[in-house]
Request: fold
Amino acid sequence: MAIIYHVTSMEEWNRASENGVYIAPSLEQENFIHCSKAEQVQGVLSRYFKGKEDLVRLTIDTERLTAPWQYDLAPSINEEFPHVYGPINTDAVVEIAAISAVE
Reply:
């Protein structure tokens, strides 16, 4: 079982729970949802979520995803990140944990 992670707000996750799918704004803008490996989550929090509250880390079982996913290079930091190329079905999310961004 391959596990990947995605950070979002509790509000966005609650909306997804009601709809059965999670759709991040990046899906419409970039055609994929940004995710991370475990060791990348803290850096993502530091770069993109500083000062934000009410965040959750979604733990995603890639074997349960109905949308395709793959690792792609993020040239800005020369690292590969997992990307989901479609909505994330909520039953692929195996854990939801409150998380804080580094101040």
About this structure: The longest helix spans residues 10-19.
